[in-house]
Design brief:
single chain; mainly alpha; two-stranded antiparallel ribbon; 25 helices; globular
């Protein structure tokens, strides 16, 4: 799939690279895959010890490798080689898997409850975003003498859609509520399809002088309705077959076949359907997630989830490393063909794009609250800040850069703005999303909930202590256990030293709660057993705490 899509573009055809043999090409491709896997495993391993967002780090590493591609030997050659992949090949290889995994694992009930909110954000909101971004290009940034409306609308449609690859990877680790998570994920899934549809329609304004509104409307309906219908049809065909399979390996393999075959049928010129492959895969994943996943053998479901999670990790790593490398190579070779003024405009444009995102959501905020889950002002801020861009924008940008029918200035500026927006949204917005949530107090517990949580945690802790004493008295098993290590592993000393965890914080919430009894249990059973686990610098605090407890 990759090899025919590599090379220089002449007209609409891609010629294979002639500077290296096909064996060398395969070796460079294999080297890039090995590099991506090792990088991903390395940073995933250390993510346990140092908390950071995974995808922005991979993007930075790719940019570093790309910028110094001529100084890192074969690694640089492999990155440069893969960076020349045709955008259509990139869409075909990476996007179906990433989109299907997100839609297949989506919570069906929550998705259907928020479906109208998602559709509003995926179509009317995207149209508004395209309109405001186009006005920004034409009049705020002053490209009216460089762009026509077809160019402005085409580039705006690329930048209007948020990216599920970037958004989902960040939100899974932020602790967002399932309702908010589903709205943002569903929006990003569907507006990738809608924005790509708008792009391919608006390109006709550049390439086809006989473009009309009737043509626009017919093509838009064909892509949207046709893609959704194809995904639904494939889901109805695949669903009974997957439910009848009695082997987990067959279920996994068939899910991959169904995903890529659906995308191929939608996008391939050989078939001739010419509908939206992204929407087709989204609908396929949602249908199978609703009618197949709940009815599968639990063992099959576990295997399916494990394999798709691994595949998504691989694809995310490859894609973000490729994105960073592509941007780094363009900067290093100064291929952009733009001026310092254009770079300055691009930096300012990122802040304007963020404001447009907040403004568009504010326009539809009253409507969204009337047709689904209520969106608070805190969730509004998170939705605005979560407008990341990534894989979809890069893939369509590659299509633009390799289509020599388009004006050169448009291709150069498209790469500049797409690259700049990806860097800004993933690195700045993505890495600060948790900070924004913490600043606005999004997941902060209320006073009553916090007291309930502390009370439950205290009861659970004391229950463990009592049960451990019972186990220690069992002569058959106790001698095999190193109890000081057990206490140390469960951080008993640290927990007890933080005496606030054992305080009720006021009037007890549980009717059968007895604070004095808890203290007596603690003192009689365990204070004397923790002496040897207290460090020298904690001994004063420990003694004060023990004396205070005994006095009470």
């Amino acid at each position: 799939l990759l090899l025919p899509g590599v090379g220089k573009c002449e007209g609409n055809r891609l010629n294979p690279v002639t500077s290296a043999s096909e064996d060398d090409d395969i070796e460079l491709l294999f080297l890039f895959m090995i590099l991506s896997v090792l990088t991903g495993v390395f940073f995933k391993f250390f993510q346990k010890y140092i908390h950071y967002e995974y995808t922005p780090i991979i993007l930075i590493i790719g940019m570093i490798f790309g910028f110094f591609f001529d100084k890192v030997g074969e690694i640089g050659k492999s990155l440069e080689y893969v960076g020349n992949i045709d955008g259509h090949s990139l869409l075909l290889i990476f996007i179906p898997l990433l989109i299907f995994e997100s839609s297949f694992t989506a919570d069906t009930h929550t998705f259907m409850k928020s479906i109208w909110q998602i559709l509003v954000l995926a179509f009317p909101a995207v149209i508004c975003s395209i309109f405001f971004i186009s006005l920004t290009f034409m009049y705020v940034l002053g490209y009216h003498s460089t762009f026509n409306w077809g160019m402005a609308l085409s580039l705006s449609s690329i930048l209007a859609a948020t990216d599920p690859v970037a958004v989902v990877a960040i939100l899974k680790s932020t602790g967002a509520k399932i309702q908010l998570h589903m709205i943002i994920e569903g929006e990003s899934l569907l507006n990738d399809g809608s924005a790509s549809i708008f792009f391919f329609v608006f390109v006709d304004l550049i390439l086809n002088s006989e473009f009309s509104f009737a043509t626009f409307f017919v093509k838009f309906c064909r892509l949207t309705l046709g893609g959704s219908a194809l995904g639904l049809l494939c889901g109805m065909i695949v669903s009974p077959l997957m439910k009848s399979m009695n082997n987990d390996n067959l279920v996994v393999i068939f899910s991959f076949i169904a995903t890529y075959l659906t995308f191929f049928l939608a996008e391939s010129s050989m078939v001739g359907l010419r509908v939206s492959g992204i929407l087709a895969v989204v609908v396929l994943g949602l249908y199978l997630g609703a009618y197949v996943r709940p009815r599968l053998n639990p063992h099959y479901t576990h295997t399916l989830h494990s394999v798709w999670s691994f595949a998504q990790f691989m694809m995310e790593t490859l894609l973000f490393l490729l994105t960073g490398g592509y941007i780094g190579i363009f900067v290093a070779e100064k291929k952009l063909g733009v001026t310092a003024v254009d770079v300055g405009k691009m930096i300012g444009f990122n802040f304007i794009l963020l404001l447009i995102r907040f403004f568009v959501i504010a326009i539809f905020w009253p409507i969204l609250n009337c047709i689904g889950y209520r969106i608070t002002w805190k969730e509004y801020i998170i939705m605005g800040w979560s407008g990341l861009r990534g894989a979809i924008a890069l893939a369509i940008g590659l299509i633009v850069s390799l289509d020599y029918r388009l004006p050169e200035v448009f291709r150069n500026l498209s790469i500049l703005y797409i690259s700049g927006v990806i860097i800004f949204t993933v690195l700045i917005q993505g890495m600060t999303l948790k900070l924004v949530m913490r600043l606005i107090g999004y997941n902060r517990m209320g006073r009553t909930k916090e007291r309930l949580y502390k009370d439950l945690r205290r009861r659970f802790f004391l229950h463990m202590l009592e049960k451990s004493e019972i186990l220690r008295e069992n002569k058959q098993t106790s001698y095999q256990v190193c109890w000081p290590s057990v206490y140390q592993i469960f951080h008993f000393p640290k927990y007890i030293l933080d005496f606030g965890n054992l305080e009720s914080g006021g009037k007890p919430l549980m009717l059968d709660y007895d604070y004095r009894q808890d203290v007596d249990v603690l003192v009689e059973l365990h204070v004397d057993k923790l002496d040897h686990m207290i460090s020298d610098d904690e001994i004063d605090t420990y003694n004060d705490m023990v004396n205070n407890v005994r006095q009470q």
